[in-house]
UniProtKB/TrEMBL annotation, chain A:
Name of the encoding gene: cbiN
Nucleus is among the record's keywords: no
Recorded family membership: Belongs to the CbiN family.
The species this protein was found in: Streptomyces composti
Protein name from the UniProt record: Cobalt transport protein CbiN
HAMAP family (UniProt xref): CbiN
Family matches, as InterPro entries: CbiN
TrEMBL record, chain B:
Subcellular location: Cell membrane
Family, as annotated: Belongs to the CbiM family.
Protein's name according to its UniProt entry: Cobalt transport protein CbiM
Keywords: Cell membrane, Cobalamin biosynthesis, Cobalt, Cobalt transport, Ion transport, Membrane, Transmembrane, Transmembrane helix, Transport
Subunit record text: Forms an energy-coupling factor (ECF) transporter complex composed of an ATP-binding protein (A component, CbiO), a transmembrane protein (T component, CbiQ) and 2 possible substrate-capture proteins (S components, CbiM and CbiN) of unknown stoichimetry.
Organism: Streptomyces composti
InterPro entries attached to this UniProt entry: CbiM, CbiM/NikMN
Membrane association type: Multi-pass membrane protein
Function field: Part of the energy-coupling factor (ECF) transporter complex CbiMNOQ involved in cobalt import.
Pathway this chain belongs to: Cofactor biosynthesis; adenosylcobalamin biosynthesis
Superkingdom per UniProt: Bacteria
Gene name, Swiss-Prot/TrEMBL: cbiM
Membrane-spanning residues: 79-102, 108-127, 139-161, 181-205
HAMAP family with a match to the protein in the record: CbiM
Amino acid sequence: MKRSTRINLLLLLAVAALAVLPLVLGLGDHKEEPFAGADGEAETAITELDPGYEPWFSPLYEPPSGEIESALFALQAAIGAGVLAYYFGLRRGRRQGEARALARTEPEHGPAGEGAGDESASRPRS
Amino acid sequence: MHIAEGFLPPAHAVAWGAAAAPFVIHGARSLIREVREHPESTLLLGASGAFTFVLSALKLPSVTGSCSHPTGTGLGAILFRPPVMAVLGTITLLFQSLLLAHGGLTTLGANVFSMAVVGPWAGYAVYRLLRRYDVPLMAAVFCGAFLADLSTYCVTTVQLALAFPDPGSGFLGALGKFGSIFAVTQIPLAVSEGLLTVLVMRLLVQSSKGELTRLGVLVAGAASARAGERKAVAR
């Protein structure tokens, strides 16, 4: 495995460890509702600080169940991950294409390889 | 850091909206200018927005026994400067408030101010400062992303403490209370965000050297990323 790939995997592993450790160590056990959202806890804190406070506006649309909500969150993550993957895939493909075009033109035109390589590099976008 | 719909008194909601609006308008202008002058950067802009989308959907457990999520605004702020992130962050927050009942329209101004204005600027400032003192690129990126994330939650803490001071101990008491909910929970998550931002930046250095050089993240003419890490370049 290449050194840079190893470092990238280690970075992912560290993130996973940071997420899993609180669960494994049972850091939520002291709570009535372990690992609830901090946003929700803030709402509870507000009602404690100011018991008379009534939210004066409610969401226009509220997911009817936890399942629908998690589906929409998954959709959000999927859209983001899809666009990121498209970007990196496109970049990788372009680089490979350039390298291949360069390799093809080199034996005929010498080392400059101006034609295909530069043309695809300067293409504004696709 | 999403303050729920209706959970800020009207005066606060309006004030934060007024504070955030100029940044978003200015950001929209810089975004349009960026796309017009450099159409080739549209893809990377999309990728920066996508990063925010993914990270703010990831609810992660933290040491306090509650869950929160990163913001993902540091990457775009480092690449395209903070104004652009004011727009991309607002889009993310709108998506969440309209479809997920997460955050809200009345609290949009306050949430935009913390996540799409202060976060990106704080992260970018630290990144630029560290680069000026020749801190290696990836270390500066980590610190920038870490601070963009953490400062966002600190602003939310202040916003809520201003709106709901503790009856006994006042603003400071409420600051401690909301701080223990948001800021402390966020520290390990900010580390995660820093690591993920470094990962994406490493992939970008591999795949998009030309683009990063144009944006001033890498030094022009540098033979390798390593050489690019030595000097900060003014933009």
